[in-house]
Amino acid sequence: MAKLIEKKDSGQDTGVMRREKNFPNFVKYESKNYIIPLIMFILGLLFVLIQGNVLNVIVTILGVILMIGGVVMGISLMTTFSPLTVFVASVLFIMGVICVANPGWVAGFFLKVVGLCILLNSLIRLVTEHSLKGKSEKYNFYLLVDVVSLVIGLLLFLFPKAWLDAAAWLFYVFGVILMILGVFNLYSAFKVYKEGRYVNDGSDVVWEE
Q1: Rounded distance, CA 173 to CA 182, Å?
Q2: Are 165 and 52 in contact (CB under 8 A)?
Q3: What pLDDT is recorded for position 134?
Q4: Quick one: pLDDT at residue 78?
Q5: Nearest-CA neighbor of 156 among 141, 177, 136?
Q6: Theoretical Cys-Cys bridge with 54: which of 17, 50, 67, 108, CB 3.0 to 4.6 Å?
């Protein structure tokens, strides 16, 4: 359990506990704020290490693994029948077939989904950070990071195939940009969390300012 610190408002004990705003609590309770930055960093790292056509190969290999997994689960039905197992085995096998049959489409769809997540995350953060306008010296930095992230997310969402077909150097540069943005987003998410006001999470616990 996280360490809870009881505070008094206006000299009176309100009975409300306030959880200290430190990095361990940020990691434990604020996953919704750092999961997208981590995905951006990991995707950027993949872009740096591999190229678009290699990504298609990876999707194909993943498809084969999914098909094998589906077949193995299907064989297990010979000894024990389970509707859930049938469903999962079928889904795995179908996903595997799709990956093998059209790896380029799957890779593009994956980039489109990631782009949409980055786009929505940036929009939400822009709204959240508006409360810090005029109250935080780093507000402009937070704003810049989220605007750039929003543009990157929009590009991924609208033109996933273009990135897969991009020249090796462009793929590499885009990966580096994603990694940097991932780190900056993680940093700004933590700082905004630290600088924000008390927020009641609905369980008589509020974040300590």
Answers
A1: 14
A2: yes
A3: 64
A4: 62
A5: 177
A6: 50
Mean pLDDT to the nearest integer, 31-36 = 77
Whether 2 contacts 25, CB under 8 Å: yes
Residue type, 99: C
Q: What angle do CA 41, 25, 123 make, to 5 degrees?
A: 50
What CA dihedral angle connects 194, 200, 203 and 204, to 10 degrees?
100
**Beta strands at 4-6 and 205-207: parallel, antiparallel or unpaired:** unpaired
Strands across the sheet containing 205-207: 4-6, 17-19, 205-207
pTM for the model stands at 0.65
What does the pLDDT average to over 53-66?
Answer: 79
How many residues are present in the chain?
A: 209
Average pLDDT, the chain: 75
Q: Are 24 and 193 in contact (CB under 8 A)?
A: no
Q: Which helix (H) or strand (E) holds 75?
A: helix 52-76
